[in-house]
Amino acid sequence: MSTEYRNYSYDVNNIIYKTxxxxxxxxxxxxxxxxxxxxxxxxxxxxxxxxxxKKLTSFVDISDPDVSIPNSYHAFQTAEKARTDxxxxxxILTCLLHDFGKIMVLFGHAINGTSMDTQWATVGDTFxxxxxxPNSIVYPEFNKLNKxxxxxxxxxxxxxxxxxxxxxxxxxSHCGLCNVYCSWGHDEFLYKVLRGNKxxxxxxxxxxxxxxxxxxxHKENEYTIFENEKDRRIKSWVQKFNKYDLYTxxxxxxxxxxxxxxxxxxxxxxxxxxELLV
Length: 278
Hints:
- The protein is an all-alpha fold and 278 residues long.
- The chain has one domain (10-277).
- 42% of the residues lie in helices and 2% in strands.
- A two-stranded antiparallel ribbon has the order 1-2.
- Helix 4 packs antiparallel against helix 5 and helix 8 (203-211) crosses helix 10 (229-247).
- The chain is globular, with a radius of gyration of 18 Å.
- The two termini are 34 Å apart.
């Protein structure tokens, strides 16, 4: 098992560096709004829970420096650790589901960074578009390539409650994370998918799904100027999830078949069937 996580030095893997550069260059408010329109207009199809997991067996996240195994195995690594620790059922299920949005590459296009081979709008750390990008993000040297960042940057590190307006981009202070646009990726894709399917997952699960890649918020404590009371209350659950997402990464696989009955029943506790409209 790796002893060092999220090592984004240039030498770790050149494709990671290139993927982040493209994401930072191309992910703007206009780009993200177009992806939302595409999602809303796309004809959805029904997919079975286990078919989704099977398809994720062929997906490897090219932005992740920690593991090189398919995402389906990481889903079970995360969920099984939460299960062993006696976490709530909804949390265990969220651990299993959290990367399901990466099936977006099945419907995506290379020009938009959403294909299997071109993943810059599918994977990687997210950030709020239409506002300055914090220097605490991975590869901050790419921030200057982002049109929104250049447009709205004044002195991000000087943000204060007394004078926040010039640092907020297109947003208002304490508007809530539900009212900002994050760079497009598997988080937002899955969030929108689940919102379109009947289920009884709690708000905490939706925050984990939607913001687990927003490391600058839940790990670096950036974007507090946008937080509302609900964001502050649920943030600790996203941070708790991050420990399971990050520190369960191992480059080994195991038999998914032996876990199928448990996770089938768990899924049906919160969803009316194994079919998701994706």
